[in-house]
Amino acid sequence: MMARRWPLAFGLLAGLAALYLGLSGGGDAAAQWGRAARWTARIGLPIFLLTYLASSLGRLWPGAFTRSIWQARRWWGLGFAACHTVHLYALVQAVQASSEVRTIGSLIPGGTAYLVMYLMALTSNDAAMRAMGRNWKRLHSFGIHYIWLIFTLAYAKRLADPLTRPEAIYGVTLCLLALGLRLAAWRSGRKSA
Questions:
Q1: Residue 193 in this model has a pLDDT that exceeds 90
Q2: Cβ neighbours for 149, distance < 8 A, ≥ 6 positions apart
Q3: Among 77, 91, 107, 142, which is most buried by a count of CB atoms within 10 Å?
């Protein structure tokens, strides 16, 4: 069981490394924290997508490697939550350092994603699964798709700006590929049923 928990430590360390690298670059505090926020989000996306795809990878390509990812998906999810907590810290610092004003309306989608992420993390255990029954699956199904949507939209809104377009293409492409794999796995499961 302990061997499966390493993705949690990996997520935290990856987030902290991205934070450190973002802060160690040049520029003023606003530039450093802005870079740290971007880099922690970039490193969090693949960790999230591995969690998002764990069961799909196992269904599409059964084998020891994909089975190990599937079996450790709870820990990959917790690793993502740890990494994205580092991102939240960097994001708050970036907003404060830049004196950027955010409206309540602009905070609701991302804030809801964080609320859902923390609810999923708090209920990522067998006791919560038993206590919540079907509501556990509803929360986790809604949550993972909602977080996917927020990532996709966050990257998509950067497509129009030539300065952020490469980052946007990276994020949108990964998110859409992940959705395609989930749909392929779902279709494959329906055909075999």
A1: no
A2: none
A3: 77
